[in-house]
């Protein structure tokens, strides 16, 4: 592994390599596997990555019969999961046969290995992170059938026995043994599962694979058995699962029901773990049904948006230079400053906000004495051509976090800013843009959707697909408040940048999408592909041999850490500067002899 690859891994740690500047390489390597939930690593994962991690942990859980994992041999006696075989893992996601599913699954596994979320064991298997069970396993050890029945009153046990075809007049011990025999036979459990209605069968999969708890809203005191009323809980699906013994009380007081161990093992053994290697196919509409001129109208809409952005860029930079807007005590812009910048941007608040937040990612803007002001790199920015500046703004926008930095937005309404970095809706939306085929539109527009949402209207089909595709590329988006609202806001911002028009992806949007899909960090900003797409959208003559001013190199790991021979002509943002420091620190710590001396060959 190259020093830059190590630095990239260390950059995902919460404190990074800088704090451990005097540490040995062995100490730093010890830090990597013990942190499975590293926000900067975890936020890079798609839904497919999540599903493979769940399947890997699930394979170990099934091997341990859903019991508590064995204790490790370390001095602290922590519980460490054993390795899982490569073919076993592929079989768990139903990708063990030759075909596209296997190719996609192996690519996903390789990504997880590169992020040190899976570690090869040298025997065609993978070690799991130390806290894999806590992050990706069942939330609790499921109770066996006998234990779950022991938490029920006698009436509940008889009710289950009667449904399963047993004699309910026998004693409690005989009833428990009979139910345990039925539910302990996988073939009988699968018969019940297949007999369930379609939506109930899907609920059972969630209970089996994810260990979800069904809320029954039945209270019981500690030490007392659970009583289920004869008329049921009010939920017919829950009552059906309970009456067949597929959900039973856990071994603790509460108002929920969980799937017992024997049932979960039978269902998990007969059904592969979910694996979705790509977002759901889009059901779009032809572009000419959205815009009278079809593709020509989309190109013209992108040109108008880019032209407006170019004019606003010059005016906003002059406005911030002339009178830097003041920040409130909570770190957001004061109302007067927001209103002034909105006027400068032609009355478009979305455009002003995008420019300001992207400028922070670029390193163009900074805070000086409580005001937002141009940084010392403003001369570099003014020296760039228009198409490079527009491309850099689009790529920087894709790198912004959901929590706003200076401009309060609906997704950061709280006065206390929390820049968690757990979700990047804009980056995910940029990735989605190439999931739309040429000539196809989602049939929705950001401005109209936001207006409809403010009036309480339900989102149309195109908007629902957009939200689902975004959450495939960035599952952590669902863990943040108002997922749909943030996706629609990002769509409106993409329209401002000329990446989307009339619900269709423009040429600029496709170049931006390729850039984001190719690397998580969108810097270097103003990459040649995006610059060339902007030039074509503006009607400019293409440059010979590409164009644009880049920061660093287009491919990850292709520049030696600390090498300034290819010093960029563009801006250096805060994240890029931090990564440079990490590369240099990792190079000093590990040295060229540790990784073979060839930092231009990335890989492990």
From TrEMBL:
Residues 541-578 are annotated as: Disordered. Residues 553-567 have a biased composition (Basic and acidic residues). This is Helicase XPB/Ssl2 N-terminal domain-containing protein. It comes from Nocardiopsis eucommiae.
């Amino acid at each position: 592994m190259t020093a830059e690859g190590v630095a990239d891994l260390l950059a995902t740690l919460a404190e990074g390599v800088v704090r451990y500047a005097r540490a040995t390489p062995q100490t730093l390597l010890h830090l990597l596997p013990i942190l499975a939930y590293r926000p900067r690593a975890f936020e890079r994962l798609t839904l497919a990555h999540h599903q493979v991690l769940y399947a890997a942990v699930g394979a170990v859980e099934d091997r341990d019969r859903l019991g508590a994992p064995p204790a490790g041999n370390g001095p602290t006696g922590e519980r460490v999961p054993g390795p899982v075989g490569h073919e076993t893992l592929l079989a768990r996601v139903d990708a063990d046969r030759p075909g596209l599913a296997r190719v996609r699954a192996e690519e996903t596994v390789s990504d997880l290995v590169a992020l040190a979320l899976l570690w090869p064991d040298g025997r065609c298997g993978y070690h799991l992170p130390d806290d894999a069970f806590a992050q990706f396993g069942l939330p609790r050890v499921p109770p066996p059938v006998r234990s779950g029945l022991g938490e029920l009153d006698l009436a509940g046990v008889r009710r289950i026995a009667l449904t399963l075809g047993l004699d309910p007049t026998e004693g409690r011990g005989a009833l428990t043994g009979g139910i345990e025999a039925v539910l302990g036979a996988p073939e009988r459990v699968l018969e019940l599962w297949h007999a369930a209605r379609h939506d109930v069968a899907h609920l059972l999969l969630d209970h089996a694979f994810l260990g979800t708890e069904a809320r029954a809203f039945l209270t019981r005191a500690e030490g007392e058995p659970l009583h289920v009323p004869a008329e049921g809980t009010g939920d017919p699906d829950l009552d059906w699962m309970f009456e067949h013994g597929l959900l039973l009380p856990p071994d603790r007081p509460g108002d929920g029901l969980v799937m017992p161990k024997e049932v979960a093992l039978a269902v998990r053994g007969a059904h592969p773990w979910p694996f979705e290697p790509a977002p759901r196919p889009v059901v779009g509409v032809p572009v000419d049904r959205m815009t009278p001129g079809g593709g020509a109208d989309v190109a013209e809409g992108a040109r108008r948006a880019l032209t407006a952005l170019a004019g606003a860029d010059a005016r906003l930079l002059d406005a911030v230079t002339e009178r830097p807007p003041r920040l409130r005590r909570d770190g957001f812009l004061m109302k007067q400053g927001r209103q002034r910048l909105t006027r400068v941007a032609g009355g478009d608040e979305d455009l002003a906000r995008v420019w300001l937040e992207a400028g922070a990612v670029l390193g163009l803007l900074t805070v000086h004495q409580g005001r937002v002001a141009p940084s010392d790199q403003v001369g570099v920015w003014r020296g760039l051509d228009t198409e490079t500046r527009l491309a850099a703004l689009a790529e920087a926008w894709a790198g912004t976090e959901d929590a706003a930095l200076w401009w309060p937005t609906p997704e950061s309404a709280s006065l206390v800013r929390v820049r968690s970095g757990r979700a990047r809706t804009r980056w995910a939306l940029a990735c989605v843009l190439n999931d739309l085929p040429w000539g196809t539109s989602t049939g929705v527009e950001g401005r109209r959707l936001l207006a409809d949402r403010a009036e309480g209207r339900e989102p149309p089909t195109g908007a629902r697909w957009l939200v689902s595709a975004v959450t495939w590329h960035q599952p952590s988006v669902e863990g943040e408040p108002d997922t749909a609202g943030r996706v629609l806001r990002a769509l409106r911002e993409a329209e401002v940048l000329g990446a989307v028009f009339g619900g269709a992806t423009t040429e600029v949007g496709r170049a931006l999408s390729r850039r984001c899909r190719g690397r998580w960090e969108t810097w270097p900003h103003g990459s040649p592909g995006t610059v060339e797409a902007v030039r074509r959208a503006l009607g400019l003559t293409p440059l010979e041999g590409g164009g644009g001013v880049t920061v660093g190199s287009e491919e990850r790991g292709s520049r030696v850490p600390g090498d300034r021979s290819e010093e960029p002509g563009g801006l250096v943002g805060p994240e890029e500067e931090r990564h440079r420091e990490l590369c240099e620190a990792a190079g000093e710590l590990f040295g060229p002899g540790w990784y073979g001396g060839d930092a231009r060959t990335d890989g492990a």
